[in-house]
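MODEL INPUT / OUTPUT PAIR
PAIR INDEX: 1
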Amino acid sequence: MAAMNKTDGFLPLPTLLSHALVAFTMEFDNEFEHRMPHRTTESTPATDSDPPNAHRGPWLTSMAMWGNCMRFLDDSGMHVRDLEDLALTKTNLDGMRRWGYIKLSADPDDKRAKPPNEDLIIRPTRAGLAAQEVWRALVGEIDRRWCARFGRGNVDQLRQALTTMVSHSRRPLPCCLPILGYGLWTSNKVLSKQSASSASSEVSISASAKQSSPIDVELPTLLARALLGFAGAYERGSEVSLAIGANLLRVLNPDGLRVRDLPQVTGVAKPGIDMALGLLQKFDIVRAGANPDGSKWKVVQLTPLGIDVKQAHHERLAYVEQQARVRLGEAAVDALRNALEPLVGDPTGQRSPLYGGLAPYPDGWRARLREPNTLPHFPMVLHRGGYPDGS
């Protein structure tokens, strides 16, 4: 597995999975934005001429908020704790309420003055119900677009390879990537009721332990579960999260890069970059300051410790994939790699075939952004709305 450290285009398997999942998510999100009445910072503010209670739509969010919350709700309501049992991860409960998708109320049988959040009843709002209708149709629609774009046989090959891999499950995993926790860790945000002994395997790539459902064969669910398995294995032996290692450490060097250029070279938006840099500086892995050439742009450099941590990141990625080969078999891992590589192709610029479905609508918020040179090498799902690039 020495090839994992090469720079000749050989991409780690988690990177291939990430590019595919991010591309699917962005295409899904662009379509949701186009079809669903919504609000953003660019929205026209309400005026006195608007009728009372005018419907201006909920705040725009990403596919993760469908996967960790809205897909499980109906108008009959459920306890928040039951939602978390179904989703196997937490949602941004307060955000989803403020953004207009859900409403929370006390259980009529609960006589406490202020019940904890997990004991509240959660229901979709009217806007939430409308959003559900749009979201519910989009997974199948984007899947059909991929079949038309890449060939049904190739997409079926990818689905089968992912299904084979996640069928080796030892624990249930959510149908989406969780919102990253402090330190931008992934694995500690997955809820599980399994015993500590069953959680000890090096590569824990998992489908739901519950009876198979339509969710279990959806392409983004399979991609997310496979990626979560690799993230869990990587993070159990790493000094940094996979989100930080794959996105930031990958591009940083001792000579320094301009901070303003990091979104372009990582595919991660500025909020995600700022969060990751703050953590790396805290642990003396990077140093940020004035540019030695005297220009006004701030630069960030790897410290001596950072050089070691970056090397350990590459070695850790190689080790995790090698362990997957040992545990799951060469054929299973090769089948997944062979299915993903033609879809991802050259990951730089817009040369990847995945970019064929990523052009936003002209009035979409992404249409006003500078095009990054790559997709994230690991999704940066933050509490801000669940966007895969940290937007």
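PAIR INDEX: 2
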Amino acid sequence: MAADVLQGRYVNPNAGTETVRQYAEAWAAQQPWRGTTRSRVTATLRRHVYPAFGSRQLRTVRRSDVQAWVTHLAQTHKPSTVGTYYRVLAAVFAAAADDRKIAESPCRRIKFPRDSAAQSALVPLTVAEVVRLAEAVQDRYRALIVASAGLGLRQGEACGLTVDRVDFLRRTVRIDRQLVTPEGKNARADFGPLKTAASNRVLELPEVVGRALARHLAEHEPGPGGLIFTSAAGEPIKRSLWAIEFRKAATAVGIDATPHDLRHHAASLLIASGCSVVAVQTFLGHKNAHETLNTYSHLWPSDSEQRRAAIDAAWSANADTNLTQDSAN
């Protein structure tokens, strides 16, 4: 015990008596999260962590309990989703261990189910499919689809676009914030920071997007704070509302897609036109090129012919060797 005290490993035998829920709520309140992150984490705690561990004392939860919970979740959720829920629980117990509430986290050596289904490569929407989606939604959301697909915007960036961020004269669009719409009856939508610092960018305004925005503004008054896109009630568009409206349109035209597929569509057009990885990364506001390649590497054309030609050209130019000459036989 003396050694543990000297090395900072000592845990009071009376510590860890608070419940997982009590500790997790205090922990969550201290985190400097964005609104969307806070909503996601608190929802995971409420729906998945508390039902299993909420009433348990911190010190009573064992590794086998966590393993059983992960195995149970895997019966009804995708492996990636199970991993997301687990990371929230692991963060709570890691903080408890740092606070010396428990000697060590029970989230250790947990085995996760493998995804037996092969991960298929992303197949982007075609221009024709985007047009069909735009024609299927309500008129007030039509330009939202065009802007999302033409500028490669995330949902919060598109729904948070305001009139002062669009320069029709210089044909640019400034993306420096997003609309944060926490779920809940009395939740208030507001502007918040972008996903990462790299997400701040100034985009060229394509003519097709400019026309769609101009037509939209001529028919629909800007909303609170100059929002270009609003609901039928003139309020900011929440994620849940846009998901419902988009799903209606996708179902009507028989296309399996989500609003985020409009962003993938924009990326695919840039890649098909010959844009570099860095150009696509900058356009989308990715943190680094690794993120861009992880998502879209399969869309870049193969360089096999170019590589073969480069080697043949170099060897053919060498006149000092007979290896490059055709065989006399």
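PAIR 2 NOTE: The beta strands are 166-167, 172-175, 178-180, 190-192, 201-204.
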